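Reminder to self: tokens first, then the designed residues, so the page reads top to bottom the way the pipeline ran.
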């Protein structure tokens, strides 16, 4: 019989059977590199890049705010749902390094949010189609890899990861939508002001 619990247990057991010592080391490093603080540092670097482009300066301030808002929403939802972390397979990470509740996955959520904001911004600037395609594929690979990481380490159920992906994508879409609306409004205001300026006549 189909059930989310059955999928959770089946995927967690299946990935557990595929563990390898070298892969566990790599996944442990990836877990640390994709936690909240490193992702916020990546966001800061992206904001610096946005500041170099006049048309993206608003996003340099606005998008980090949505990243923080998404991270807070994930923590609030964790406390509301109060789902415990998996206990059916051994964790790769030491128990002393893992804290908090399970649903949704914070790693999956904040990374999908970050990727959505970055890739969505790239799609709205004048870059080649190759660059846009590369950004989409790289972002998708990164999000999937982080999700796999959480299940591989045994610290999240697959449905935790799925919920994190969805929540991150929603906040990313909302951030891009708000940024786009404000940018469009500012552009229209500038165009209106320019059209109202008196024309200069020679002579």
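Designed residues (203 positions):
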């Amino acid at each position: 019989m189909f059930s989310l619990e059955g999928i959770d247990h089946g995927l967690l057991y299946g990935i557990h059977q595929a563990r390898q010592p070298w892969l566990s080391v790599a996944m442990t490093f990836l877990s640390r590199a994709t936690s909240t603080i490193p992702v916020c540092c990546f966001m800061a670097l992206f904001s610096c890049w946005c500041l170099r482009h006049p048309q993206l300066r608003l996003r340099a301030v606005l998008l980090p705010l949505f990243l923080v808002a998404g991270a807070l929403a994930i923590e609030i939802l964790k406390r509301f749902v109060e789902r415990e972390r998996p206990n059916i397979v051994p964790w790769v990470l030491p128990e002393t390094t893992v804290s908090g509740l399970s649903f949704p996955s914070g790693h999956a959520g904040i990374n999908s949010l970050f990727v959505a904001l970055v890739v969505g911004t790239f799609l709205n600037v004048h870059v080649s189609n190759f660059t846009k395609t590369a950004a989409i594929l790289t972002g998708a690979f990164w999000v999937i890899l982080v999700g796999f990481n959480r299940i591989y380490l045994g610290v999240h159920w697959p449905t935790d990861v799925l919920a994190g992906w969805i929540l991150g994508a929603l906040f990313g879409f909302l951030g891009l939508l708000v940024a786009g609306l404000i940018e469009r409004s500012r552009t229209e205001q500038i165009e209106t002001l320019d059209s109202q300026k008196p024309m200069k006549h020679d002579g």
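The CA atoms of residues 34 and 101 lie 18 Å apart.
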